[in-house]
């Protein structure tokens, strides 16, 4: 081993520094950590609140694990690598994948089969959370050609991004109580990786320089065995002592200290996976069995219905009951540097939270919406408003004003009141405060539902009117007749003006239709003399490609937000203005897919990946959103026609 300085050596081609008898790779140069990819083929969690851990899947692997709350991702990926000495396959890049749910209730545990493209072998995994502990469990079996299996070597890779960031992580090998594995830590968050099989080799390194993936692809074997890598962008690899098609379990646990993470790992792996799986399924079955039996009305035996229910429930936090985030993803996160505090959809939006809660209420679940309402009451600001979005602990991320985000908690409270679902909790003070906020800050919203434009929006008006009517009726029930009548009168005022403010009379988008709803009439909140005529205004669109037009006549930009007027009972489904507006949005926003129709947000939308498939980085092309197919399905149900092919588009 050639010596280069008093403290620096080359160990099998990699610079290393001895420290108390340990081999440590040099951190120079260090690759900047990549962010988290937003693609998802599955998400899940155990139902019990003691298991405060969530996981996401894509490309056949676990790509994120959230702990201790649903908004804090702690790893970038957990996957397997395979070699026989002549090739190296990385599971997510080189193998094909097939995914299915556990059991008949579509509980959010998954069976993933990763296939060698040449058909020589496959990795069969079952993935779920420990039913009672913050530990991810993977039951694994390697199958294939009997002549090849004895030569195959299997490695597990983990890339920790602890405490929500890829920098400053540390990782070391551990040997405790006759067991070995990898232990990671950063800022009081600890992670432990182990298995029911022993490890032949373990190594910790810096990503792209001295990590196990680099080692394997360079040498087709694990030549480097570093004891630890500290304070950087790190990854760990372990070679499992697998014999043929032997079945085993891998665990990835978390805790607030080394002792907690290791204890959780050993406790979890100490119970046979079959027993753990039975408990996992039993927990979810208890919940799924209580929802309304609506599955028979679908064409798939209720499969999509059960999946939707379980996915909604999987987005609720367990330390902050009722905190339902929008999605466990960061859009185009893999094209951004990974950093603590990077926002995404793994935040609470009051609008999205209320939609999830009302969806669960429609399924016959009153407990989750109740928890959501209590959480919202605790999140309300002193002036009656709500932050645009916030972390589950209430800390704000964006602080814009969206009036529909203030209105929806009132609607949720009213629905629970009507369903006798409030228990001993009284949300009436929250309702009055939010309704007063709508009056003081409306009718122009600082941001519409797409968070890009201010003004008079049909969808915002729909939510405001529904909330003000709810607050007014509630006030009258509580004996506050004058206050209740004021809210009702203000709702009537908005209803009487909304068509005049949000309708063009000179439309040219579809021949023969001159009058239809638009996306928004641009105005500024607090303007004493706002423009009240759509046909005289211009709308500046966000996210447009450089050099392309971004300013359009407001009458030429449409979305499907007016459908909320039907959903909340403000306009009839067969109202001629609504029918004509549907025809216009169909002509401009409807996209036919092999699975049925889908819809874009609005014409000239620039929020989406680019034309060449590249990421959205300030501009792109808006794509079709399955959410909007669901909203259109609500409208068709209101017309009495049924969703028809729309249900296939979801």
Question: Could you characterize what this model shows?
Answer:
It is a single chain. The chain is of the alpha+beta class. The protein has 14 helices and 27 strands. Among the domains are: 38-203 and 231-285, Distorted Sandwich (Beta-galactosidase, Chain A, domain 5), CATH 2.70.98; 319-415, no CATH class. Helix content is 28%, strand content 24%. It has a nine-stranded antiparallel sheet. α7 (367-379) packs across α8 (403-418) and α8 packs antiparallel against α9. Mean pLDDT is 93; it is low at 1-12.
Helix content: 25-40%
CATH level-3 fold name of the domain at 38-203 and 231-285: Beta-galactosidase, Chain A, domain 5
Task: Please identify the structural class as seen in this structure.
Answer: alpha+beta
The main sheet orders its strands as 9-10-11-12-20-16-15-14-18
How many DSSP-defined strands? 27
Mean pLDDT: 93
Largest sheet: 9 strands, antiparallel
Mass-distribution shape: elongated
CATH architecture of the domain at 38-203 and 231-285: Distorted Sandwich
Task: Please outline what is shown here.
The protein is α+β, with helices and mostly antiparallel strands. The protein is 28% helix and 24% strand.
């Amino acid at each position: 081993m050639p010596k280069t300085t008093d403290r620096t050596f080359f160990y099998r081609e990699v610079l290393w520094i001895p420290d108390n008898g340990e081999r440590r790779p040099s951190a120079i140069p260090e690759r900047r950590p990549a962010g988290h990819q937003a693609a998802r083929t599955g998400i899940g969690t155990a139902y019990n609140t003691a298991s405060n851990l969530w996981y996401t899947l894509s490309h056949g692997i676990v790509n994120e694990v959230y702990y201790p709350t649903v908004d804090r991702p702690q790893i970038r990926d957990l996957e397997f690598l395979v070699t026989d000495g002549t090739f190296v396959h990385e599971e997510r890049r080189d193998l094909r994948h097939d995914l299915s749910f556990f059991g008949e209730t579509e509980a959010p545990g998954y069976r993933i089969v990763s296939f060698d493209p040449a058909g020589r072998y496959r990795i069969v995994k079952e993935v779920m959370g420990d039913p009672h502990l913050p530990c991810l469990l993977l039951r694994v079996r390697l199958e294939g050609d009997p002549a090849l299996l004895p030569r195959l070597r299997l490695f597990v890779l983990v890339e920790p991004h602890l405490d929500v960031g890829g920098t400053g992580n540390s990782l070391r090998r551990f040997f405790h109580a006759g067991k070995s594995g990898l232990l990671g830590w950063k800022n009081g968050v600890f992670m432990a990786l182990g298995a029911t099989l022993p490890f032949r080799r373990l190594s910790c390194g810096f990503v792209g320089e001295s990590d196990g993936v680099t080692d394997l692809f360079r040498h087709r074997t694990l030549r480097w065995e570093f004891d630890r890598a500290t304070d950087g962008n790190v990854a760990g690899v372990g070679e499992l002592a697998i014999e043929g098609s032997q079945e085993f379990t891998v665990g990835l646990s978390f805790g607030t200290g080394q002792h907690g993470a290791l204890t959780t790992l050993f406790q979890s792996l100490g119970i046979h996976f079959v027993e753990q799986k039975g408990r996992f399924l039993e927990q979810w079955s208890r919940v799924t069995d209580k929802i309304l039996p609506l599955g028979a009305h679908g064409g798939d035996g209720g499969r999509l219905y059960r999946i939707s229910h379980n996915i909604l429930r999987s987005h609720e936090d367990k330390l902050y009951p009722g905190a339902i985030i929008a999605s466990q993803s960061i859009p185009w996160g893999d094209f951004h540097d990974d950093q603590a505090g990077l926002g995404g959809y793994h935040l609470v939006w009051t609008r999205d939270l209320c939609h999830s809660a009302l969806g669960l209420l429609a399924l016959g679940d009153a407990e989750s919406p109740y928890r959501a309402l209590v959480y919202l009451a605790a999140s309300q600001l002193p002036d009656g408003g709500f932050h645009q979005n916030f972390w589950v602990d209430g800390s704000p991320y964006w602080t814009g004003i969206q009036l529909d985000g203030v209105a929806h908690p009132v609607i949720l409270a009213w629905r629970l009141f009507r369903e006798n679902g409030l228990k001993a909790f009284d949300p009436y003070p929250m309702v009055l405060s939010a309704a007063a906020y709508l009056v003081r800050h409306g009718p122009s919203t600082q941001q519409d539902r797409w968070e890009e434009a201010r003004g008079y929006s049909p969808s915002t008006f729909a939510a405001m009117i529904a909330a003000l009517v709810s607050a007014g009726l509630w006030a009258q029930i509580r004996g506050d007749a004058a206050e209740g009548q004021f809210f009702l009168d203000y709702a009537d005022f908005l209803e009487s003006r909304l068509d005049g403010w949000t309708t063009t009379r000179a439309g040219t988008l579809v021949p023969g239709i001159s009058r239809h709803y638009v996306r928004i009439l641009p105005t500024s909140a607090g303007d004493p003399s706002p423009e009240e005529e759509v046909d005289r205004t211009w709308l500046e669109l966000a996210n447009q490609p450089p050099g392309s037009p971004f300013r359009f006549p407001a009458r030429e930009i449409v979305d499907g937000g007016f459908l909320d007027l039907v959903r909340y009972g403000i306009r009839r489904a067969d109202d001629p203005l609504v029918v004509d507006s549907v025809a216009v949005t169909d002509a401009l926003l409807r996209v036919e897919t092999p699975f049925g129709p889908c819809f874009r947000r609005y014409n000239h939308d620039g929020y989406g990946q680019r034309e060449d498939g590249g990421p959205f980085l300030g501009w792109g092309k808006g794509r079709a959103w399955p959410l909007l197919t669901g909203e259109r399905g609500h409208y068709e149900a209101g017309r009495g026609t049924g969703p028809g092919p729309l249900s296939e588009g979801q």
